[in-house]
Description:
4-stranded antiparallel beta sheet, 30 strands, 3% helix
Amino acid sequence: MRALLREARRGAALARLEHEKGGLVVGHFVGDDARQVVTGGEDGTLRLWREEGGGWTQAARWAAAGKVQRLARDAGRRRVVAATSEGPLLWLDPLEPDARPHAAVILPDLTALGLSADGALACAAPREPLRGPHRVRLVDLRARRLGEELGGTRSPVKAVAVTRGGLLLTCSGEPFDVGRGQGEVEHTLIAWDLATGAERWRLALVTEVTCLALAPDERLVAAGTTSGQVFLVPIEGPEGARELVSAAVGRDLGPFRRAMAHGDGVKGLAFSGDGARLCSVARRSAGEDRGELRLWSVDDGRELRPAVACPLPTSLDLSPAGDVALLGTHLGRVELWAADPD
């Protein structure tokens, strides 16, 4: 009976937080446990949710200037920054029901948004650079001031992460069917020195890199691609990079077939609080509007349980204990799913 209950719990959402009627919604766990969630949606609001007595209620609601398109949180889960369609970056510090969001700077149409561990430095990647290559703009949120631009890639930046040790990690890429030669497209994971702007190392890949997750101890960064691959890369450099593969997933690549983590593009990655597990979510297969959730052992790369079918997500986060996954969706809500290995 316990085994059947566990399987039933995995195959359905534990809870659904209805942010709006349809539309893209992104979200994160905040606070010290899995009982608080912040969401942002196309309705132009940020909302704070709290779980009490087995149910979820809306504890606060803030108006945003335009649709909330991207959301990032700090390592301590007490600060968030949101990017809106009209341009203002909204900063909530601390994240409490009576907090007031600060409009930091105007940066419209971003492809990626990240927040430093202390929540004071935002890293924003505009879709179209003013000149030259695609770069990441640093934003001092406390001073509400634009900082310098770092990096430089031929393809748009898709995700960013900042380490306590002073590295800016960026991943970039775009599909090959954009009317340009393959040589003009850059699919890379790059580490930049925040202090000097110099490139520390890079990992070149053959497919578009779409998402990043930084391990809590900052020994590793996980990167997902549109081909369904998931890589674990040491922060010191790509020489020790390894790929996660599932025995249940194989793809035909020209004359040969190889195992991969997922059958199609990876949409999100998240580490557990102790860094021992990695959760990944992706499209189940090309053309499907459903997703799949997989759970991995970081130490040896084992898949810890069979994949679970879920909605196709817009974002992924894990609770501090690592046993609940939060999926943003295009359905106007976020959903909570079991992510425990047992």
